[in-house]
Amino acid sequence: MKIKQLVVIDDFIRRDYAHAKRFFYNLLREPVRQGTGFSLNFSARDSENNNLRSGFDFNTFIEMAAPDGKWQPHYHHISDGAKQYLNKHILPDSFCLSYELPVWLKKILEENKVSYFDFRIAPLRFARDLYIAVNTNNTLLKNRLAKFIVGSNEIKLEAALIESAMQIRTELNNPNCASGQPVIVYIGQTEFDASLLNEQGEFVRVADYADQLKNYVGTHKLVYKAHPWAKEFAVKEKQQIEKILEQNIELAEYSVYQYLSMPTNTSFIGLSSSVLQEAEFFGKESHVLFAPICPLNIQTGKKDHLLIRFEDFISPEFWWAILTPEHEAPEVKKLPQLQASHLRQLHNVWWGYADYLLEGNEIIEKLSEQVIGRLD
User: What's the average model confidence in pLDDT over 63-85?
Assistant: First the structure.
């Protein structure tokens, strides 16, 4: 595999979540450098130092690819002019790293035989740490990834940890929960989730799958689990489901992982939520009405995304092994596993590190909300 430079290209058209893309590229820059010797330059979104051919203008490309200023209609397809403009600026023997590779870019890279490495946070979110889902069109690279791939048995062990913990918490706090009747949980999503876009660039809705929903539910009880960010859209979607089923439905009483961990006969349905992929590892049935945005090889057996551990993903050894194993191995293979803040806690000295731990920490914020709520 001949690589002259790494280039960062992702969904330039979609401005949302650019901060998440920057986070991952910044995270990888040093491990990639130590492992391979390559510089992981910046995205053309942020800098002219981007390893595309000199002269590439980000705004020109956007105007050609999405003249209407919208990303949704162009998630699967962009104009021929935009394709040609991007193609002529990809240097020979480039290797593309892409966070959440969009469909339009995947088509361009495959048509032009440019190797890519697509990565994203995996849809299985219950393990002790998040996994990374990766995919590539390069056969040699896929073979080199083999030793890092996580299999279904490890995932099931992770699921067993949270399942046992959630069951005992639920039994203690909600003693009647485990003895409830079988229930189907509809998992809602946000209104403009990219996983809901069809080939025509339109967002699918539950009404598009009314017959499938009615047939699956039958005479069973269905409850609606709203996405925490959906707000007004969740209200509308619940109303749509009630119209389809011709009955009122209750809001879900418990959390997703409480339902996944219940010993009772609980199943799940939805359009494309990642919870529907998680259900299998808890021994639960699920039904996907549309399609997951990140299908996993361990579930489909096809050329879909592979799972790797985050600690491997950020190690110089990983990038050396998959991109430049013919070169000398990096001096530091991966960060050593340390007991976090051991001396800080013993000596109770934190300096500015305390700000890092607390500022914008979602867990701290939620904990504060709960404490304040109980005090009120």
Answer: 96
